[in-house]
Every structure is written in structure tokens, then in C-alpha cells.
Amino acid sequence: VWNATIVSKGTGEKTHFRLFGDDAPGAEVADLALEIRTEQGLRRVSFPIDRVDVSDWHDIVVRYGGGKLQILCDGTVMAE
């Protein structure tokens, strides 16, 4: 099962950011997803978890600036 929060700040309408597994019903594979609250509202970026070896450790970096939201895994931009 890959449907849980990994790290977050805030709750409900006061959530500032949340990194989580998203195992949506009907999806072929789960996503690693990030939601972040910006001046324009809640933004989301995600990528299919099968793009990485889930048995290894990974460095996850999220960048937000100039209206662009990116999620990187081990230095590679996975989604924006």
C-alpha cells in the first residue's frame, strides 16, 4: 500500500506542504506526490513511483520559484 503522508507541515486548509504516496483507485502504479500552498492556491506535482527503485534510498528535492514547481529525485527533474 502506497497511500500515506511522508512529511507535511500544517493540516487541512492550513496545509503548507505535503509529500505523500498517492495510490489512486484504478491507477496502474502509485505516484510520489507533493502539494504546496502558494499565492495562487494549492499546487501539485507528482511522478509514478515505478520510475525509481523503491528498495533504495533517494534524495528528494522540491523547488518552487517564478511560478514553476519541480520535484527532483537524485538530481533528476521527475515532474514540473
Description:
With 80 residues, this protein is mainly beta. Helix content is 0%, strand content 54%. The chain contains no helices and seven strands. The chain has a four-stranded antiparallel sheet, with no helix packed on it. A three-stranded antiparallel sheet has the order 5-6-7, with no helix packed on it. A hairpin with a 2-residue loop joins strand 5 and strand 6. The mean pLDDT is 89.
Structural descriptors:
globular, 0% helix, 80 residues
Quick summary:
The chain is mainly beta and 80 residues long. The protein contains no helices and seven strands.
Strand content: over 45%
Backbone CA Rg = 13 Å
Ends: how far apart?
25 Å
Order of helices and strands: EEEEEEE
Number of separate strands:
7
Form type? globular
Helix content: under 10%
Question: Oligomer, anyone?
Answer: single chain
What class would the helix/strand composition place it in? mainly beta
Q: Mean of residue pLDDT?
A: 89
Uncertain stretches: none
Task: Please give the order of strands in the largest beta sheet.
Answer: 1-2-3-4
Largest sheet: 4 strands, antiparallel
* Number of DSSP helical runs: 0
